[in-house]
Structure formats: structure tokens, C-alpha cells
Specification:
With 486 residues, this protein is of the alpha/beta class. It has 21 helices and ten strands. The strands form two sheets. Strands 1, 4, 5, 6, 7, 8, 9 and 10 form an eight-stranded mixed β-sheet that branches. Strands 2-3 form a two-stranded antiparallel ribbon.
Length: 486
């Protein structure tokens, strides 16, 4: 063999050796599922000591979503309300749950990890960084090729390592433990079933696995793993080995011959958890972008509200019994740029059609999610008025009483989306921003400013301030965000 041939053989052997070493992180198993421990709603948010619960739902959309969501956090941070008692509270401190999908999951998880420290470095360290360029550079990095060719390590694992290096710095879900008053729920999609998969211990109990050991970077990578462009994130499923049973609340109506109409989403949740618990036939779960199943992160909110209403009708206690208000701020950064397809006889190309076909259903689902929330708000309000009416006061029919049962909680559905902007020129600018992990600094600043403007102008937000007997402190609003660079 020639000298060149020997060198080529040595190089190939070294390459194969490197390839064999490439492996993905393994989520560890648990031997016993304990619903009273772990990262989940029941252990995080102490609702017994609060009147209000603020829920933030961050949609997908790459850096556009991350920046728009960050603008909401900035607004809530500098919005100080003064209650009728004289107590001053930041609205940000009232947030108990944040759901994050795809691009929105980065802001959600980063705030869950860093809290107020996020405001010192997130803008320059992530939002105004060319993350997409660094991902693409990795594909052309020869030192990563062996890993990328490995069957156990793909493009999303490379992305997870980048996210860890620039944002999460080795943190796992165990590092979210110090903040007991906030639950962050990043979600992905089980590509086999199309069901959503939330990174909380309830879902990991079904798989008999310990969420605490899972890196936040892998959750973000799974939540944003756009099919085809990025590979799925794979996690081990040990379901069936830890005496797991679904939450008691979910099982309440499981065997009933007739279920309340409002329990349908929760019933599907139970079925999906049971399917996830089949570790024998499904030892591996492959996850892709959470937007495939729910691009605005609202399903968890709607399921919880449905369960609360159904349990109320069944005369059972709920975790929301002490609440007076639930404020849901849906931060929807989904864009729908206008096309010129209808001006040509020729149909759109394959790539353009694929992009549009994936976005249109998400847009419609976003709209339906908000409408479902508003329907629940209207139904609870109507039931309360009927119960308080003179006609109901003398009615002793148990069936009528059951029909009118609903939580005595006010819901505020605040829509933070581009369509709510009064400035149409600004709407056109933001609506045409691409879904990518790189944006001009100007675009990032204008997204943050738009988020503040939309919330401040929202009639639902103004109704909330009026109903809680509060006001925005003027000096807190005077620097309402970075000036838009028009």
C-alpha cells in the first residue's frame, strides 16, 4: 500500500472511531413515581396564598418569538401596580406559569433559570446573536462531521450543545428548583403520535424517568426541532417500571359512561399519557418542534381550566379554589406574510408551498385557542350571573344546580399578537419578519417595543387594572422600552 493509501486508511479509522464515540445524553430512569415531588405544578405554584395567577403563553417563531416574548417580560417587570391596600407589586412577580413553544421556549426557560438576571445579558447574548449562523457553521465544521453522521447524534444534538454553551451553561431542570413560585413548561411534539410532550415531571413519570437530570438545552432543542431542517431529539422511555398511574384528577371521569362536555381535552390528555407509559413497545420517544402539536402553548392552559370546571361540577375540590382571577397573556408572534401567488397562473414551488402549508394550520390553531379561552371566560361569567339571579334563587332542582356550577373565578384573556397593533406600518414590518434564529438588532428592538405597546393598549389589560383596583405607576411607564428604530 502506498504512503498516501496508508494515511487515508489511518484517517478513515480515526473518523470511524470518533463516529463510534458520538452519543446523545441519556435521561435516567426512576424506580418509583411520586406525584408529590419533582418539577410540576403541584410542587411549584403555591396558590393558597395568592388571589391572582398570571399565565404567560409564549408561541413559536424563532428569534422573532423569543424577542417578542422578552418584550412582554420587560413590560411586566417595569409595570408596578398599586393595590387598593397600598401594596406595590410588579406584575412580573404575579406570574406563576409560563408555557413556551419553539422560539418562545428559550425565553421561558432562560427566565425560569436566571430570573431578573436575564435582563442584563439576554438581549446581547442571545436575541441579537447570529445563532442560526453558528448552527450552520457547525454543519461545515469537520470536527463535528463524525458526530453528525452518527446514528445516535444529529443536528439537534449539535444545536443543543450550542444552546448550552451560549445560554444555559450546563443547567438542568434541577437548577430551576430555587424559584418555587414559577413553573416553566416547554413543550415538544411526539413525532410518532402527533401528541404534545411537556417537559414536566408528570409526563416524565409516565416514562418512569427523572426530569431533574435533563439539560434545559435539550428541552429547548426538542421544542424548536423543526422537522427536516433539524433532527428529532430522542429520549429513553422506561414506562411501566415505576408503578406510575395518571393524576387522580385526570382519572376522575375516565370510567364514566357519560363525560362532561368540558372534559374532552383532559380525556385526550389521559389517553396520551397512557400511550406514553408503554415503554415496552415504545422504548424511545422522538421529539420535534412543539409547534407541530400546539404552536401557542395554550393547550395546557385550556386542559387545566376544563378540568377545574369539570371537578367543580362534580363537587370536588380543585387547586384553584382560593383564586379570584386567572390572567392569561397569550404572546402570539406567528406571522403570515402576504404572498403574490394569486397574481400568477403558475402554482407556488415545492419549498414555498411546504413552508406555507406548515404555517397556515398553526395560524388557525392559534386563533382557535384564543377563542376557546374567551368562550370559557364567557361561560363562567354567565353561569355566575345565572346563579346570582333572582330566578335561580328559588330553584331547588339539583340538575339545574349542577348545570350552573362553575368556578367563581374571573378570567382575563389578553391577546398580544401583531394583529393588535394600531400602527399598520409597524404591523407590516413585524408580520414580514422571517422565522429564523437571526434578526437585525433593529427588528429585535421593535419587537420588544411592540409587545409593550400592545399590552398597554389592550382593553382586557385595562379591565384587569380596573378590577383589581390598581394603576400603573407613571414613572415606571415613562421608560416603557427601547425606542423603535424606524
Amino acid at each position: 500500500m502506498s504512503r498516501i493509501g496508508v494515511l487515508q486508511s489511518v484517517a478513515l479509522a480515526a473518523l470511524l472511531a470518533l463516529t463510534g464515540c458520538a452519543t446523545r445524553p441519556i435521561n435516567p430512569p426512576i424506580t418509583e413515581a411520586d406525584p408529590s415531588t419533582g418539577y410540576r405544578f403541584a410542587t411549584r405554584t403555591n396558590l393558597k396564598s395568592r388571589d391572582d395567577l398570571v399565565v404567560l403563553a409564549f408561541s413559536g417563531g424563532g428569534t422573532r418569538a423569543a424577542a417578542f416574548s422578552y418584550g412582554v417580560l420587560e413590560f411586566l417587570k417595569r409595570t408596578e401596580i398599586v393595590r387598593s391596600s397600598g401594596e406595590k407589586v410588579r406584575l412580573l412577580d404575579e406570574v406563576g406559569v409560563i408555557t413556551g413553544v419553539s422560539g418562545g421556549s428559550f425565553t421561558a426557560l432562560a427566565y425560569g433559570l436566571y430570573g431578573d438576571k436575564l435582563f442584563a445579558n439576554y438581549e446581547q447574548g442571545f436575541l441579537k446573536r447570529n445563532v442560526q449562523g453558528e448552527l450552520i457553521a457547525g454543519l461545515f465544521n469537520p470536527t463535528l462531521w463524525p458526530h453528525l453522521w452518527s446514528t445516535n447524534w444529529g443536528r439537534s444534538e449539535m444545536a443543543a450543545e450550542l444552546y448550552d454553551r451560549i445560554l444555559f451553561h450546563g443547567a438542568t431542570f434541577a437548577d430551576l428548583e430555587p424559584n418555587k413560585n414559577l413553573l416553566v413548561l416547554a413543550s415538544a411534539t411526539d413525532i410518532s403520535t402527533g401528541a404534545r410532550m411537556i417537559f414536566d415531571q408528570n409526563f416524565f413519570d409516565a416514562m418512569c424517568s427523572n426530569l431533574d437530570a435533563v439539560p434545559l438545552s435539550r428541552a429547548a432543542a426538542a421544542s424548536s426541532a423543526v422537522p427536516v431542517a433539524l433532527s428529532p431529539i430522542t429520549i429513553n422511555n422506561y414506562g411501566g417500571t415505576c408503578n406510575y398511574s395518571p393524576l387522580a384528577a385526570l382519572q376522575t371521569f375516565a370510567g364514566a359512561t357519560s363525560q362532561p362536555r368540558t372534559i374532552e381535552r383532559a380525556a385526550r390528555e389521559l389517553a396520551e399519557l397512557q400511550a406514553l407509559a408503554d415503554g415496552k413497545n415504545r422504548p424511545y420517544i422522538h421529539l420535534v418542534d412543539g409547534g407541530v402539536a400546539d404552536n401557542v402553548g395554550m393547550r395546557a392552559v385550556l386542559v387545566t381550566l376544563e378540568m377545574t370546571e369539570a371537578l367543580q361540577r362534580a363537587g370536588q375540590p380543585t387547586q384553584f379554589d382560593n383564586l379570584r382571577r386567572i390572567v392569561v397573556i397569550m404572546v402570539n408572534s406567528i406571522s403570515s406574510p402576504r404572498t403574490r401567488w394569486d397574481e400568477s397562473e403558475l402554482p407556488p414551488g415545492v419549498v414555498s408551498l411546504a413552508v406555507k402549508a406548515s404555517g397556515v394550520p398553526m395560524d388557525h390553531y392559534s386563533y382557535e385557542s384564543l377563542e376557546s379561552l374567551k368562550d370559557t371566560e364567557a361561560r363562567w361569567k354567565l353561569m355566575r350571573r345565572l346563579r346570582q339571579s333572582a330566578a335561580f334563587a328559588g330553584n331547588t332542582d339539583p340538575a339545574v344546580a349542577d348545570d350552573l356550577k362553575s368556578p367563581d373565578i374571573d378570567i382575563y384573556a389578553i391577546d398580544v399578537s401583531f394583529a393588535e397593533l394600531k400602527d399598520k406600518a409597524e404591523f407590516e414590518y413585524l408580520n414580514n419578519l422571517p422565522t429564523s434564529f437571526v434578526l437585525p438588532a433593529e427588528a429585535v428592538d421593535r419587537l420588544r417595543t411592540a409587545a409593550s405597546t400592545i399590552i398597554a393598549d389592550s382593553p382586557e389589560f385595562q379591565r384587569l387594572l380596573k378590577d383589581i383596583g390598581a394603576r400603573i405607576v407613571p414613572e415606571a411607564v415613562s421608560n416603557a422600552g427601547p425606542a423603535a428604530a424606524h
